[in-house]
Design a protein that fits this description.
Layout (H helix, E strand, L loop, with lengths): L1 E2 L10 H7 L14 H21 L7 E5 L2 H12 L6 E5 L4 H11 L4 E5 L9 H7 L4 E7 L11 H10 L3 E5 L16 E5 L10 E5 L25 H16 L1 H18 L4 E2 L10 E5 L5 H7 L3 E2 L15 H5 L4 H4 L2 E5 L6 H20 L2
Parallel strand pairs: 1-11, 3-4, 3-5, 5-6, 6-7
Antiparallel strand pairs: 2-8, 7-8, 9-10, 10-12
Length: about 375
């Protein structure tokens, strides 16, 4: 099986797996005071520092709270932002469902919600954003890298508009973490996830700017500075930390490899149309359209390649991608689109073989249409 769905999840790094295995046997509770507990606590503290460093916070200026994943972190960010007197959220139409669904849930509870449209290339109109962000705004939420089309939003500019109005800025950095520059100084809250950077599933984090007073997410034993109670898993934390450290160490090497693969993909899929901006994008994400092709059938026909028609979270819903619709694509065009994601462990030979299989199956569909 050739794996080309790196935006949905990434293969576990061998280094992370090796670091995690001993913690299957080392079962001490990291919140206990005996030696096994202290050892587990120390391992989690090292992992937390590794994740913060990969984010760009090497001096510990912010607080990193470990969560079950980025979905929890995003829910916490949005719900916490409107706990005060300001009750307005501004976000983008192409955001992940964990942001849009949470924002809509809050809108049903007397929170004002503005969902900004995007241009045909997937980028936000900053003039429209400036008009929407005002003194009532509590939070502006925007992804760094879109999970479906790979477009990189101008998050620093959006953060500047938010701060000018006295609002906070939340960045879903899941797809960009460890891969591209994150303007951490411009952010108040940032969500990240381990399994998008070759770490384990089931763990993520919310980074909070230093000095930011934030309501607790889960009450109980008072763990994690009293903000999120519950016993942490040393195994997951250690795996996340090592994956983050490896991503930081290999960032330039990974970037060169992915750019080489992207250049090859340009040639292999020259007959396909690229969805989203061709310049302001992460090159390991390629959302392509071939009008007349049914993407669901294509995925079924090409069984030796793992790729998708969009977000894994919306897979099987039967609805066209909300991201592609936000670009102005019709339902038919959205259903003719596929997402190819490649990364650290993808080889050039695998990409060429996958392209041949996908192109052949697409040509057969068009031939019999």
């Amino acid at each position: 099986m050739i794996y080309l769905d790196y935006q949905a999840s990434t293969p576990l790094a061998p280094e992370a797996r090796e670091a995690m295995l001993p913690w299957l046997e080392q079962f001490g509770n990291p919140h206990s005071s005996h030696r096994p507990g202290r050892e587990a606590k120390a391992a989690i503290e090292v992992a937390t520092a590794q994740i913060a460093s990969a984010l760009g916070d090497r001096d510990g200026q912010g607080r990193l709270i470990l969560t079950s994943g980025a979905t929890e972190a995003a829910n916490w960010a949005l719900q916490g932002a409107v706990a005060g007197t300001r009750r307005k959220i501004v976000t983008l139409a192409t955001e992940h469902a964990c942001v849009l669904d949470t924002a809509e849930w809050l809108a049903d509870r007397n929170v004002e919600l503005i969902v900004l449209p995007v241009l045909g290339n997937g980028l936000v109109d900053l003039d429209a954003a400036a008009d929407a962000i005002d003194e009532r705004t509590a939070l502006v939420a925007a992804m760094l890298v879109n999970n479906e089309i790979g477009v990189i939003q101008p998050v620093a500019e959006l953060a500047r508009l938010a701060h000018k109005a006295g609002a906070l800025f939340f960045c879903d950095a899941v797809q960009g973490f460890g891969r591209i520059d994150l303007p951490l100084d411009a952010c108040d809250l940032v969500a990240v996830s381990a399994h998008k950077i070759h770490g384990p599933k089931g763990i993520g984090a919310l980074w909070l700017r230093g000095g930011l007073d934030w309501p607790a997410m889960i009450h109980g034993g008072g763990q994690q500075q009293g903000l999120r109670s519950g016993t942490l898993s040393p195994m997951l934390c250690v795996g996340f930390g090592v994956a983050a450290a490896i991503a930081e160490q290999r960032r330039e090497q990974d970037r060169i490899h992915i750019n080489e693969l992207s250049t090859i993909a340009d040639k292999l899929f020259h007959d396909w149309i690229l969805n989203g901006d061709g310049i302001h994008r992460y090159r390991g994400n390629r959302n392509l359209r071939c009008d007349g092709v049914d993407s669901s059938r294509l995925i079924s026909d090409v069984r030796d390649v793992a790729f998708s028609a969009g977000s894994a979270c919306a897979s099987g819903s039967g609805r066209p991608s909300h991201v592609l619709r936000a670009l102005g694509l019709s339902d038919a065009e959205a259903r003719s689109s596929i997402r190819l994601g490649f990364g650290r462990y993808t080889t050039q030979e695998e990409l060429r073989e996958a392209a041949a299989l996908i192109n052949h199956a697409a040509a057969r569909q068009l031939e019999w249409a």
